[in-house]
Specification:
Strand content: over 45%
Radius of gyration: 17 Å
CATH class: Mainly Beta
Distance between the termini: 39 Å
Shape: globular
Helix content: 10-25%
Number of domains: 1
Amino acid sequence: MSASHNDTTKDAQRIVRYPLAILLLLCLMARGAMGGELRFSVDLGLYAPLQPEGTPGITLRPSLHYFFDPYWRNTLATGLTWFQVSGETIWQIPLEDTIVLTLLPGRRIVPFLLAGSGLYDTLLPEENVLSLGLHAGGGVFLRVGRGGLSLRVRYLRYDVTDSDSGALEYGLALGARF
């Protein structure tokens, strides 16, 4: 393992650790103030950059979901994504805020739509790039006990100023209620 890879991994761990603590604190405060329901999930997904020279990668993202009512929820997420473009490994650390609309609440299988924005810290071989991005998509949630499983797909533009920064993400998430 090269020194630059170790440095990149340490930077990634440092950057992810602090947003997670802040997200947890904010969600717990919101839950106490508004009386909604708080859930936690872990997403594992396939990340497919749309650049012709891009190679699919993996995304791992813990998320906190705050349910305002049966139809609307706010999701805060951070995590780690890695993929390759032109043979270079790119690490990405998102901090995302997503609004989710549940189409048929209260059922065992629940379709949903999502849209949101985020800050994306992209760790390139020679530099770090912080950018504003947007994403939209949808999926289905299957209720299982006190939690569930969701399958989703979304289009992600991790830099709104760069037309080559798009990706499709296919994911599977396991969730649980607090």
